[in-house]
Design brief:
binds zinc ion; mainly alpha; 11 helices; single chain
Amino acid sequence: MLVLFIFGAMMGSFACCQAWRIKKGDKAKWSHCMHCKYQLQWYDNIPIVSWLMLGGKCRKCRKKIGYAEILSEVLTGFAFALSYILWPAFEELYALNGFEIAKYVLFLINLVIFVILFVYDAKWKELPVGLMYVAWGIATVYLGVSIWQTIAVGGEVDIITILGALMILPLFYYLMYRVSSEKWVGGGDWMLCVPLALMLGNFWLAMFAMFAANILGCITMLPVAMSKKNHKLKIPFGPFLILGFLLIFFCQAAILKFIGYGLF
Ligand SMILES: [Zn+2]
């Protein structure tokens, strides 16, 4: 768990940095300060520790680094560690089942991509399309492994529920986006829904994830919306979709049991 936390914190640091690099089109080999271009040394790059030692300021010009960096490091660290103990098929993962290990690794890769998208959307209220296609690819492989695993243990693959997941999340958001000409939901949201639906792979889970994302969005943004007089407030929905997905992904066993799916 500690190893996963440290590894996750490193990935969180990487993800936050990538969000900036994609936005700025920055291909520099080494990270540098946004203000004075000071090139970061190895001891400035230790996740969490460096930020705390420097008090969230650049070593050279003492300008603020920002809270997104430390938050993404700490939270991704926790997400990595927690995803292990909260894994839906923890017993199999713990027993080093090949299918579960493959699914877990693919999940973690997409988790890092989701952190990049989370930071990007929260900061600039848009989602980078190229990166989302990478998430589509990884989620498709994830679903493929999942189907293969079901067949390998003699289970029945429920194609309808997989298609249902794609209908309820990406297709529904795509239609809302088209019908409203991007007024209700952004063009990036339906694209982000594709990997989420593929990894949930179940109509009911996808519906719960959509519900959770909307509830989380309302709880968080309502005070903001009410405090501002501006009625054209633009709310980034990507972070809520990702949080809703994670919540439902880790509760999926309990949810499927609750609704009685697959118990007949
Ligand atoms: Zn600086």
